[in-house]
Records
---
Amino acid sequence: MADVTTQAPPANTPPKRPRGGAPEFGPQRKLTSGGILALVIKVVLLGIIDALAVFGLYVLIGKGDWLAAALLVAVVGLVNYIYLKPGVLPAKYLTPGLFFLAIFQVFVIFYTGYISFTNYGDAHNSTKEDAIEQIVSTSQQRVPDSPSYAVEVYKQADQFGMLVAEPGGGTAFGTNEQPLEDASSAPDGWERLNLNQVLRFQDEVLALNIPVSDDINDGTLRTPDGTTAFVFTSTLEYDETADTFTNTETGAVYADDGEGNFRAEDGQTLTPGWRVVIGWDNYAYAFTNEQVRDPLIRVTIWTFAFAFFSTLLCFALGLFLAIVFNHPTLRGKKIYRILVILPYAFPTYLTGLVWAGMLNQEFGFINEVIFGGADIPWLSDPWLARLSVLLVNMWLGYAYMFLVCTGALQSLPDDVIEAAKMDGAGAWRIFRSIKLPLLFVAVAPLLIATFAFNFNNFAVIFMLTGGNPRFPDTTMPIGATDIMITMVYKIAFGSGGGRDYGLASALSILIFIIVAIIAAISFRSTKSLEDLH
């Protein structure tokens, strides 16, 4: 029988940890000072997060938002589980990124989708209760035989209130949010304003509109000078049981039309309305209303043309310069490359304004110096404005393509090019049959990303032309150089047609779908291109 000898491990070899041994923070593990500090920092950060979560939970429960409160508890509980449990190391690194992705990407997309199914806008921006109070307050008139009330104005932080001496001899205190309640003096913490302070806060004092009682039809008290007040009542009387407004002067009745408005039989509505879900109406409106549909079609066509030609021009010029400055016999290549990428270092907003001044029809550098005082309407003629936008965007974007193409050209295999030269291929044939296909494999994903970026290139349009010149056949502030994203901005925040967040959100969802489809098709084509090589 053969002798079996075992060799002892070297003295300096640490013993192997058996399977199922001590956990990460078990008693057999010694924490270094750095580990203790990291643990303390982690516990402190989790404590801060938990404290903020408790405060947020208190606020949400106070408002009765149980769904958001439950979601907050679930998220905070998951974060505590991930960071307090030993192991699960990948989750510790992924959690912050996934959290911000959910907040700034996923939530924004879903919330925008929700708003697109509502009538949210200038005239429908709050709840029905707020709309009722606003309608009553904006239609108030002073009661002709209203008694005069002696008042004192008080202030607490940024809130104002009045202590009112009633005709019967009693006193009451109230604010815009709190109706008058019997009180011998102002509550604790309220400071009475003297005459100079009343004059200083004149706008806030004149804006005081204190309800006489819980019934909004009883009217409110307003003061013109901070010392006396009068009763104001609304010409529109609200019937809570019937959920209608009645004009006390004309007798017209306004009922809830189910679309966020109080509407009379003749079609007249009271403003403001309130936000409600209206289904697919915004999408239907975008394609059926002539004031939106016709400009939208032209803007969509121009958006695709702008994105395509911008990407093509930037790539062509960047590739040309990359080939020129990558020539092995060229001297001073570093200096030339630095000069070429300078436009990439300037902010788009600033560059757009500079080019807008240079292209000015009367005083611009282009007309005055280059064209000898010519009167060329670069920014006021629709087609010249589109050409100007393309040229300026090419000037802004070619440096990026130059860097990309330079890196791709320098990574091409030299042996393939040398073999082509030995076979008698010329420079053009080598470029067309070898360099360009290999180049496309490397830069195709970047071209897709550039196309998507130009599809939503808000800055260059907004700062250079503002979307102008305007279309003459629509009342909306939309012009010949507007792309879809600037059109959405004008509908959501622009002047002229009011703010319509619901319609703007619907158009944003359409842009998202279009870009997603283009990206999916393009990346599939890119995969096929890679398979061929």
---
Amino acid sequence: MTAELVRGQNHPLSQARLEIRVSAGTPIVAAAALSDETGRIHGVEWVAHPGAPTQPGLEVSRQAAADHRLAVDLDALPEAVHRVGVLLALPVGGAGPVRFGAVAAPFVAVTGLDGGEIASYTLTGLDAESAVVALELYRRQGAWKVRAVGQGYAGGLAELLSDQGLPEARQLAGSIDEAVAQGLARSVQAPPPRTADGDRSRQTATPALGPDQGGTAPQGAPGPVPPTSPYGGQPPGVPGQPTPQPTYPGTAPDPSAVTQPSVPTAGSPIDYSHPHRQNTAPPPPPPTAPPAAPGQPAQPVAGDATGWSMEERLYNQVWGMFEDLARTTAAYRSAVDFAESRMDKELEQVLSDPRSRIGGQGDAAREAARARHAQLVAQAREALDRDIAQLTAEADVVEPALPPAYARWDNPVWHAYRPPMEIPMALRLGDLHLPEADRIRIPMLVRLPLERGLWIDSGHTGSSDGSFTDSHAMGRLAMETAVAHAARLLAVYPAGEFTVHVIDPAGSGAQPLAPLVRSGVLAAPPALGAAGVADVLGRLTQRVDLVQMAVRGGAADSLPPGFDTSQQLLIVNDFPHGFDDRAVNQLRYLADEGPAFGVHLMMVADREESSGYGPLLDPLWRSLLRLTPVSDDHLADPWVGHAWTYEPSLVPPGSQVLQQVLARVAAARTKY
């Protein structure tokens, strides 16, 4: 029976190998600290954190996420350790909340390797605290217990670690923040939460054996979850607790279908908020297909999620597919881990008995353990294959139905392209997939207007095929990727509502930029040399200053006559060539302040070549979403922590679709 703890209450632990699961309504940092009998941490090597996720007997997540799993092996802890503290903190320096009082109460559970919950604790009563000691595992008279602590610190991790006697508390807190910031810079947007009416209900499937077969539930407590398929309905929640809604700092703060209305500025005609946002719940999807027969999987239908329009329903459906794939893959990996740990434990028991080390009895026990392992893995793979087959069928239906903003460049929808009258909800930047389901490509959608700049990395990547090792080939392909993204942005915005500027100091991007230049969709020819860099950056910096003062002062009508209120995109090629210190500071200013006032950055650069400026540019790189011109597994989700392989959205070789779309954009701009 699960013990639901209150602050200060303890509960005995009967197992040495445990899992501590954390569920929160926002990405948080999870760490674990070892201490002696007095609760003192002896050194930085006694703390497992995202920068050093593995310590003796401990393993924590490498990034901030809304859900965490911490592995603890009490038998593997050093002899001097008498306490293990579970530490939670809010990431600093991002766009997320800065105090626990502003988010849903975190939920922490201690479970065995079989998924059975031993004790749980909901951290209520937090307010200004930004770091908290959630639980403490402690040893008393040779036995281990768990205690609900809930001690919060308004000073963050530095104050928390200092209170536990760590001399290098501030340095360690800084290194943890740095590791988390680097993880956020390579993260993709979290999927929108499922709505209460179950917009992605599916036919219940036979569960696989093993722990946590339902995967990690981003909206509920990680308690004793019954094994389920992603198509088996709603994820479990915490009894008596509101369902937390995962968000991600640095991306759109409200990716769900039910969005909040923006706050208008008095007297301001400039509104960069999304035009489709509503303050009421969207209607359920209309019935478009007959229900599936008993025992048969549901027939996939494009647009079967909730939403006010087909565009919004497709957006929610795409991220529902992302969520389903993440859940079923997490369930499969968890089952395989359990099968391996169970086999290791059984083999360890066999080897611990001298009588069974040799002879037929030992061989039979080892074969039986391996057979059980193979059976569990086979059952998990069967459930995974079933879910992947259903998702593949859904992807085959959804992909052809996507509008231009969501569609690949080879989608026939581009042949009937016409400049839109309204800004779409989101934009496709590429595809995401996992190694267990290589057949499925999930569109990577980001909300519009962009709330983060983009960095197209022209340096060497971790591409699995080892292609494009030549720096010139990578640079050209990176610029072609940037042009494809810019063309898509121009195509999905109404005529006259999106403007593109280009800085190409050395002129190295002339050939990839040719489609934009020839079609006449650029605001001006690409800026060359140091003088061109200074001119473009000066004008855009002044624009941000003017709009910022006007909007914040409630005097937007005082902007100069003929002021261009459209969204602005600045493409910077071959950085830092042609940039002096003033230009670098202006670029950082645009990256920090520009998105809120309609100016966005798209950097095409090799970070290694830009390292000459030292740590000055680190905040710039962290504020941008890194993309690659070739397939690379550098992106992580803040939900279950999978490493997703990203594939850029490129125009097929030999296709004229880009030129045709840009020609129609140019014609519409001329009429406008």
